[in-house]
Amino acid sequence: MEFYWRVCVQVQTLLQQMQDKFQTMSDQIIGRNILFESQIGAIHYRCTSILNELDDMSCRIDDLEKNIADLMTQAGVEELEGENKTPATNKS
Question: Which domain holds residue 63?
Fold first, then answer.
């Protein structure tokens, strides 16, 4: 009978050790998951910020191109095919 009790105590001890190890591993996984989510959040925020900056830069470039085209029109310069620019002929 005593052998039976010793085996029961050993089994309970092993089960408790396994439970403790499982809990430790679970806590580590949860901690890593929280850290990972935090890093993903920071990366997402930075990427969104960069995309917003690029969008803003694109709008500025569009405005600049429009202003240049307006100035060229005011100066009487016509756009030819390619990059060559020549003064427009005034028809009077």
Answer: 2-73
Contact assessment for residue 73 and residue 87, using Cβ atoms and an 8 Å cutoff:
no
Instruction: Note whether residue 67 is domain-resident.
Output: yes
Has residue 78 been placed in a domain? Answer: no
Please state whether beta strands 77-79 and 85-87 pair in parallel, antiparallel, or not at all (unpaired): antiparallel
- Give CA 29 to chain center in angstroms: 23
How many angstroms separate the CA atoms of 78 and 92, rounded? 17
In a domain, residue 79? The reply is: no
- pTM to 2 decimal places: 0.49
Domain count, the chain: 1
Is the CB of residue 83 less than 8 Å from the CB of residue 72?
Answer: no
Would the pLDDT of 73 be above 80? Answer: yes
Residue 89 has pLDDT above 80, yes or no: no
